[in-house]
Amino acid sequence: MGSRIVMLGGPGAGKGTQAKRMSEAYGLPHISTGDIFRANLRQGTPLGLEAKKYMDAGGLVPDELTCQIVADRIVQSDCAKGYILDGFPRSLPQAEVFQQLLVLARRERGLGDQRRRDRRGNRHAAIRAAFVSEVRRDL
Prior knowledge:
By secondary structure, the chain is mostly helical. The chain has helices at residues 15-26, 33-43, 46-56, 63-74, 92-108, 113-118, 120-138, and strands spanning 3-7, 30-32, 82-86. It has one domain (3-138): Rossmann fold.
């Protein structure tokens, strides 16, 4: 397993700038949630279209949807040697789900692209379950 770097900081702190520099220096993909939201929109994916509803309304994309989009991205083959996350996770629930995503991604690492796509539903179900348990814990 390669390096997984998480850039945290407030808006305008330079996370994106530093992440781009580190990406070039270490040869790791720079993963920004904004970039992957836009890529999903361009591709017309169901997750991208769902995120668009929130973005068009000027709201934040919910944690569950954000985690699903990040989960789909970090299991892609270019992330096999690691990646740099820019601004994710942004909340404690996202961080808790990210821990689970690392385990799922490790299990899928050796699979081909089609098998990873086939397992997308399993990843999304695990994320939904994590957020349901989080809501129940808060009640």
